[in-house]
Design brief:
CATH class of the largest domain: Mainly Alpha
Order of helices and strands: EEEHHHHHHEEHHHHH
Shape: globular
Number of domains: 2
Strand order of the largest sheet: 1-2-3
Structural class: mainly alpha
Strand content: 5-15%
Largest sheet: 3 strands, antiparallel
Number of strands: 5
CATH architecture of the largest domain: Orthogonal Bundle
CATH topology of the largest domain: Fic-like fold
């Protein structure tokens, strides 16, 4: 049973989400502090997030058996198509596409061709901001770091190191102290006001703990989608949250035998809408639908490359 409990403290009202459960012959209680003097809208938003920490989402029912089989087929078919491509050619092509798309979602002005030139030809376009050029180089460094990790569990230090690589030498002077560190200021992204900075360590810690305990219990796509949506809701850093979050998603997929995924820039509006659905309604299906479309697009892309090489 899950319910909101109010506790008076002086002139203020504190709110907790409480879950009671039976353990043997005893009834136990677990609670999460939501905040003080909350209005109805604030309370509703905080309750939705806290329910995840209390284990109230049935992750086994997010995908049907048929949908799980479709992802398994996509994984195997795409992996086989990639194996037919010379490894360095795939690396250059994928990383160029992935860096272009991930950075474009965040506002980079580099084209796909310019991104490839920066990453693999050492050519920087003179007409584009140097910040965007540096972001492309940073993304490559961060991707190489993530793909080289041998561990399967997450840790805060590892996540902070990825963010540091993503934003290195790109933050304004007054924010440089936050390279590789959790934010100590409040932030917003579009209409989304992220949780207050003082709640970030607890929320990120709970999310990391959830992943490490559940990464092999549920379908890899569901795990990656849930972690990504929660990470983007928390927005633990002053900058680089989207790029870091998508790199972490590939870390998770890699460890479960899935190929790396590009969230294509052409889907950016759907992608943001899907993150909003996950944030407000805890509905992962729109985000998973985009992940499936991206894998299908990649399969078409790399199957075509395979045929072209054979011709």
């Amino acid at each position: 049973m899950v319910f909101v409990e109010k506790r008076e403290k002086g002139k203020h009202m504190q709110y907790y989400l409480v879950k009671t459960f039976r353990e043997g012959q005893e009834v136990r209680k677990k609670s999460i502090f939501l905040g003080t003097d909350l209005d109805e809208a604030q309370l509703e938003k905080l309750v939705a997030g806290a329910k995840v920490e209390l284990g109230e989402i049935d992750f086994e029912k997010v995908l049907s058996k048929n949908e799980a089989k479709e992802f398994a087929l996509l994984k195997d078919t795409l992996n086989n198509a990639i194996k037919e491509i010379e490894p360095h050619n795939f690396y250059e092509h994928f990383l160029t596409e992935y860096t272009y798309d991930s950075n474009a979602i965040e506002g980079s002005s580099l084209t796909l061709q310019e991104t490839g030139d920066v990453l693999f030809e050492g050519i920087s376009p003179k007409s584009k901001p140097m910040k965007h050029v540096q972001e492309a180089k940073n993304h490559k460094n961060a991707f190489d770091f993530v793909m080289g990790l041998k561990q399967e569990k997450l840790g805060q230090d590892m996540i902070c190191e990825i963010q540091r690589k993503v934003v290195e030498n790109t933050l304004p002077e007054h924010l440089k102290k936050f390279e590789g560190k959790l934010r100590a200021v409040n932030v917003r992204a579009g209409l989304h006001i992220a949780p207050p900075y003082y709640s970030v360590p607890r929320k990120l810690g709970a999310l990391i703990k959830w992943f490490n305990a559940n990464s092999k219990k549920h379908h890899p796509i569901v795990v990656a989608a849930h972690f990504h949506s929660e990470f983007e809701t928390i927005r633990p850093f002053v900058d680089g949250n989207g790029r870091t979050g998508r790199l972490l998603m590939n870390f998770m997929l890699k460890n479960r035998g899935f190929p790396p995924m590009t969230i294509f820039f052409k889907y950016w509006q759907e992608y943001y809408g899907a993150l909003e659905k996950a944030r407000k309604e805890k509905n992962l299906r729109p985000l998973i639908k985009i992940m499936k479309k991206c894998y299908q697009d990649m399969l078409e892309m790399y199957s075509t490359k395979k045929q072209g090489a054979a011709d």
